[in-house]
């Protein structure tokens, strides 16, 4: 049976007490499952607190941590940035790279994202490469060409994909309450898997879906052939709803 990845991206949410409460409730409800890979991506300022919580609560073997962004240098005069080494030092195993909000709000290009992906691999931090089209792209029939370009440039310098994850997040379905249909999501994730298979001759790179995933629709996405899990936004802020998405 394939492993389901359930990743919670808190974005710029949750203060210290909320962080503590989240993991306390999570620990009370979480059970061991060999077919589940569970990870939480808190704001980086709470990464150490999150690590301490999961260790003290005895769930460090069930929950991994990640960061929402890193820079492509190890140290230096890069005000406000954090490096993969810093993330690893604080307990992170993953880094979300190329999220649509980073692309649209902060002007990150696919080439820039690609440098981060490459550097994460050098340092041993597993990248979660986000790709996805806007509603305008989709309406113009450009959805796949946009995603393919993001993949090509984001993975340009990557020869060995071991440890890579890809998250398909249609921009028009993020934070809007509108999600892609199961068929649309499966179709794009299938295209992504085929592209990865052609480039790297492997078909086991996890492909996740992200876009208004919640307990009511998570099962539909997980039931498809080419969706290996979800990158969850708002619904991951509540530990009960987050765990309700586990199939």
UniProtKB/TrEMBL annotation:
It is an enzyme of class 5 (isomerase). One of its GO terms (biological process) is gluconeogenesis. The active site is at residues 99, 169. It catalyses: D-glyceraldehyde 3-phosphate = dihydroxyacetone phosphate. SUPFAM superfamilies: Triosephosphate isomerase (TIM). Pathway: Carbohydrate biosynthesis; gluconeogenesis; Carbohydrate degradation; glycolysis; D-glyceraldehyde 3-phosphate from glycerone phosphate: step 1/1. Substrate binds at residues 9-11, 175, 212, 233-234. GO terms for cellular component: cytosol. Coiled coil: none annotated. InterPro entries: Aldolase_TIM, TIM_sf, TrioseP_Isoase_bac/euk, Triosephosphate_isomerase, Triosephosphate_isomerase_AS. Its EC number is 5.3.1.1. Keywords: Cytoplasm, Gluconeogenesis, Glycolysis, Isomerase. PROSITE patterns: TIM_1, TIM_2. It is found in: Cytoplasm. GO terms for molecular function: triose-phosphate isomerase activity. It comes from the Bacteria. NCBIfam families: tim. Belongs to the triosephosphate isomerase family. Involved in the gluconeogenesis. Catalyzes stereospecifically the conversion of dihydroxyacetone phosphate (DHAP) to D-glyceraldehyde-3-phosphate (G3P). Homodimer. This is Triosephosphate isomerase. It comes from Dethiosulfovibrio salsuginis.
């Amino acid at each position: 049976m394939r492993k389901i990845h359930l990743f919670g991206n808190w974005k710029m949410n949750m203060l210290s007490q909320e962080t503590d409460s989240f993991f306390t409730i999570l620990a009370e409800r979480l059970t061991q499952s060999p077919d589940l890979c569970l990870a939480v991506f808190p704001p980086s300022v709470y990464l150490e607190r999150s690590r301490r919580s999961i260790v003290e609560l005895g769930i460090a073997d069930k929950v991994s941590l990640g960061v929402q962004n890193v820079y492509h240098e190890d140290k230096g005069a890069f005000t406000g940035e954090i490096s993969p080494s810093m993330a690893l030092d604080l307990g992170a195993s993953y880094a979300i790279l190329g999220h649509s909000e980073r692309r649209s709000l902060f002007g990150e290009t696919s080439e820039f994202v690609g440098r981060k992906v490459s550097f994460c691999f050098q340092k041993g931090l597993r990248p979660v490469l986000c790709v996805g089209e806007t509603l305008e792209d989709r309406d113009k029939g450009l959805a796949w060409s946009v995603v393919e370009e993001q993949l090509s440039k984001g993975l340009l310098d990557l020869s060995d994909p071991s440890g890579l994850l890809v998250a398909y997040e249609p921009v028009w379905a993020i934070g809007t309450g509108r999600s892609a249909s199961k068929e649309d999501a499966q179709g794009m994730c299938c295209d992504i898997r085929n592209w990865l298979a052609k480039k790297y001759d492997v078909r086991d790179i996890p492909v996740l879906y992200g876009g208004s995933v919640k307990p009511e629709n998570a099962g539909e996405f997980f039931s498809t052939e080419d969706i290996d899990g979800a990158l969850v936004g708002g619904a991951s802020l509540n530990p009960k709803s987050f765990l309700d998405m586990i199939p």
